Amino acid sequence: MDRIPILKMGRVLLVTIQVDMHDRLALALQDDLSERIVRDGARGVLIDISSLEIVDSFIGRVLGDIAAVSRVLDAVTVVVGMQPAVAITLVELGLSLPGVRTALNVERGMELLRAVTMEDEPDPVDDAGPEG
Amino acid sequence: MMRVRKDESRPLRAEDDVVRARQAVRSWAVEMGFSLIDQTKLVTAASELARNTVVYGGGGTLRMEALEDGPRAGLRLVFADEGPGIADIDTALRDGYTTGGGLGLGLGGARRLVTEFAIDSAPGQGTRITVVKWK
Q: Do B112 and A89 make contact, defined as CB atoms within 8 angstroms?
């Protein structure tokens, strides 16, 4: 079965959804992320949905469940990059993604996660590059 | 007078058909010149209703019709199944009501995303949901 790839960057797991997901694929992503949060000791999950052309109630529920499960596992999930037309439709549909943190783009999402995950201990990967 | 300029029927049997139905609705909506927001609303409504047809209706069909009514153009989508039907349509349309594992936003939510919405269903008689979005 197809899987959506999960990348690890320091203590953050990165997911970019680039395909029109069928429901099983979305559920598989939820399972994979839960497992990876524990295995990798991740503190943050960043999900980029800028390529998603719609978010319906099923995908909305999956995003909410991912956020809830990650919270229980002591990680923070941020959903980034939602297209304006998707946001408008989502609200009209009756979904406001309660409990899901969002950011406008990957950069802002990473800033948010860095702030949250830096609270307790420094990130093992220094993304400022080699010190001169 | 209203006429159907183009029509097509597609099977809705499995989850992959829901993805294909979304793609077909998107391509028709683009071709008909719907705005990006209206395309998104149509595809989202189609996704909710196609999933219902597969999950609750046990599979069925999607009929797509490009309508012309004088200067107006519209896209009509008919989701039909021969499943158990809906006993209480008013309750089924209420936000938060679900018999499955969803959020219960499918039917009521889809209704808000289109211009016209009609349900024809009775227990044991299957379900037929017709939606139209006019440009």
A: no
